[in-house]
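Lab notes, practical 5.
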Amino acid sequence: MIAILDYNMGNVKSIANMFKKIGKEAKVTSDIDEIKNAEKLILPGVGYFDYAMDQLRSMDYFSILDQMVLMDKKPILGICLGAQLMLNRSEEGKPTPGLNWIEGQVVKFQLNLQGLRVPHMGWNDVRIIKDDKLVQGLPEEPRFYFVHSYYFNLVHKEDELLSTHYGQDFASAFSHENIFGVQFHPEKSHKYGMQLLKNFAEL
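Output from the prediction step:
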């Protein structure tokens, strides 16, 4: 079973509905025992970095997630803010450290001089940077739906999985061993999102 973590920060029903469409078992849950027994995890997120970290802390998720992700090597997929939380820190939440699973920080777009709006919102092409099971079956430049003002600034280039251009090139997905993160919303990205979530379910 795939556990979609419910910590009051994500569009969890849409994610669950997408898994249902592709015929994969996934459950929205905040139950510690259900999370511990899951084969894979989804960490969604919409909102503010500091508040999201506070929510995870208040629900006693830290030690459980560290054990499952870092020690047991359970596959986990972070979506949007959920992926940002996996890094060391964010410019949006300078006082609060992230989960420290992926080396890097989350930085804000500075695109005013280019006449581009922030947040970056809507459909955009992505470019596959490296071969990975998460992107199998996707074309060379699939399209995904984005809503974000901050992006991943990764320390290790080899962690970058997908790249997107919006005023600049930025990493729009990463993968490191069993840890995956996407800046876009696969649950809102129709056939490409369905393929990506199907790939994750079948890892």
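Observations recorded by the TA: The chain has a mean pLDDT of 95. Helices lie at 12-21, 32-36, 49-58, 62-71, 81-84, 190-201.
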